[in-house]
């Protein structure tokens, strides 16, 4: 009686499990890998639900480190920012602007950037804010 040799087989189930776990991890982590400067935005209690725009606005960021970013590109002097904004305004006249500023930045600096955008004639200039978490109702006795 002759015995049949066993055929070696690869069990792919553990491999598929590992690949699926890695896929899920990358799907969760990838959106968080943004090159933006970390900014602690001021918060509001009642955001406007109609504030979503169709076109992607131009983003100006004032970071707590003192850096000024124009769509993730570092721009430090105000004169350079103004000339670059003017060039963008001439090439894309319907593009709006969103100013993101850290809570610790003095309001005067934010207002100067806002004023430059208004003076150049951008159709919409907005300030980015974050939503305040809802406060628990206070009980009075």
Secondary-structure map:
Blueprint lengths: L12 H17 L13 E2 L13 E5 L5 E3 L2 E2 L3 H14 L5 E5 L5 H14 L4 E3 L2 E2 L10
Parallel strand pairs: 1-7, 2-5, 5-6
Antiparallel strand pairs: 2-3, 3-4
Helix pairs in contact: 2-3
Polypeptide structure, described:
With 141 residues, the chain is an alpha/beta fold. It has a domain at 43-131: Nucleotidyltransferase, domain 5 (2-Layer Sandwich), CATH 3.30.420. 32% of the residues lie in helices and 16% in strands. The chain has helices at residues 13-29, 78-91, 107-120; strands at residues 43-44, 58-62, 68-70, 73-74, 97-101, 125-127, 130-131. The strands form 2 sheets. A 5-stranded mixed beta sheet has the order 4-3-2-5-6, covered by helices on one side. It has a two-stranded parallel ribbon with strand order 1-7. A hairpin with a 5-residue loop joins strand 2 and strand 3 (68-70). Helix 2 (78-91) runs parallel beside helix 3. The longest helix has 17 residues, at 13-29. It is elongated, with a radius of gyration of 25 Å.
């Amino acid at each position: 009686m002759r015995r049949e040799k066993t055929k070696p087989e690869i069990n792919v189930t553990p491999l598929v499990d590992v690949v699926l776990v890695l896929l899920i991890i990358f799907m969760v982590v990838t959106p968080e890998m943004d090159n933006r400067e970390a900014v602690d935005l001021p918060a509001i209690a009642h955001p406007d639900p109609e504030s979503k725009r169709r076109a992607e606005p131009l983003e100006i960021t004032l970071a707590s480190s003192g850096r000024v970013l124009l769509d993730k590109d570092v721009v430090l002097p105000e004169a350079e920012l103004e000339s670059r904004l003017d060039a963008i305004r001439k090439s894309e006249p319907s593009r709006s602007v969103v100013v993101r500023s850290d809570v610790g930045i003095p309001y005067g600096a934010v207002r100067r950037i806002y004023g430059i955008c208004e003076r150049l004639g951008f159709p919409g200039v907005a300030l980015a804010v974050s939503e305040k978490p809802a406060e628990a109702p206070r009980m009075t006795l």
